[in-house]
Write a structure and sequence with these properties.
- Helices cover about 50% and strands about 10% of the residues.
- It is of the alpha/beta class.
- The radius of gyration is 22 Å and the shape is globular.
């Protein structure tokens, strides 16, 4: 190959590479990382995470204008008819993660192309952190869980230090693994994140949210030391579950580095504080784990009671047109028209 031809070919390859790189959307983990960084830099308010558990709730959160969401294991268990006691398997959680990812993608496409005032802009699916429970086994299982959630499109994964089978962090009967095993479990998750990036590129490995439940079982100081150790082995975010006072929340924020999650469970063990107050305290994210699930259960129970009494339910429900729009009929009809080979009457 002549020198000029070689230089021209090289330049064309560079231009093509840049064009390809700019044409692809930002990977979900990198998008989440940037959102967290903006909060940390004081450029954005605390990241609010209404928790979803299926395709419909994922769509509702995305269409509601939130920047991120969290797939709650309590919710996934609940809609499968079980309590949050790890009766739902890894494969069932993985399937739920894929369904959530599809819901977020469909909502992004709908907002960008078919919503009122849309200008056919590039669609952006909001990132989701998925509940990975205990990792469903030993450290090697943890790594497989991280890879599985990454392939399903999750931006992050939460790994906790409870003994399997785990349970909701705000109920009785919890127990945790030893300090050293907890740290190794988180280290395995971080290693899997890094290995995934080696295979599939920078920014593709899901961020690791390391959770400890040891406050109730082993005391506040042990929980703080676990969070610090989780950060030392590379986790991206920490989550101290079920602090019981504002003072504990403040001390956690003061002593542990990096992004931190506040769990705003209504009627739970932790004080419910306004988002601005949580951010001032040092939290980066505020999750609302059961709000959508609990609100829907309340609405369904009230509607069932009205049906049983033979009373109208119109005050409890959306119009049929609104319901169709929320589940995606509007987008489907427009997509169908776009690819139609002949016009329908």
């Amino acid at each position: 190959m002549k020198p000029f031809t070689a230089i021209l070919t090289f330049n064309l390859l560079i231009c093509c590479s840049l064009r390809i790189a700019s044409s692809f959307g930002c990977p979900p983990p990198e998008r989440l990382r940037r959102l967290l960084q903006r909060v940390d830099d004081g450029e954005a308010p605390i990241l609010l995470l209404p928790c979803c558990y299926d395709g419909l709730t994922a769509r509702l959160v995305a269409l509601g204008g939130f920047d991120a969401t969290f797939m709650t294991g309590f919710g996934v268990s609940g809609v499968n008819g079980y309590p949050d006691t790890q009766l739902v398997s890894f494969n069932e959680m993985l399937k739920a993660a894929s369904t959530v990812a599809e819901g977020l993608s469909s909502a992004a496409l709908e907002k960008a192309r078919y919503s009122e005032g849309a200008a056919d802009t590039d669609p952006v699916a909001i990132p989701c952190i998925a509940d990975g429970d205990t990792g469903y086994g030993n450290a090697i299982n943890v790594k497989r869980t991280v890879f599985g959630y990454a392939r399903s499109g999750m931006a992050g994964i939460m790994i906790e230090d409870q003994v399997a089978p785990k349970r909701c962090g705000h109920v009785a009967g919890k127990s945790v693994v030893s300090f050293d095993e907890a740290v190794k479990r988180v280290q395995a998750a971080c290693d899997a994140r890094d290995e995934y990036e080696v295979l599939f590129g920078k920014g593709t490995g899901p961020l690791i949210l390391a959770r400890t439940d040891s406050l109730v079982t082993d005391g506040f100081e042990d929980a703080i030391q676990r969070c610090i150790a989780f950060r030392d082995v590379g986790c991206d975010m920490t989550f101290l579950e079920a602090p019981q006072s504002v003072e504990q929340m403040e001390e956690y924020c003061n002593r542990v580095s990096g992004p931190k999650l506040a769990n705003m469970l209504e009627y739970g063990s932790t004080p419910i504080l306004p988002p601005a107050e949580l951010q001032k305290m040092g939290y980066t994210m505020a999750a609302y784990p059961l709000t959508l699930l609990s609100a829907s259960i309340k609405a369904m129970k009230e509607s069932l009671e009205l049906i049983k009494e033979g009373k109208p339910t119109l005050d409890k429900i959306l119009s049929f047109a609104e319901t169709k729009d929320v589940v995606g009929f509007t987008k489907y009809a427009k997509e169908e028209e776009r690819y139609a080979t002949e016009k329908k009457n």
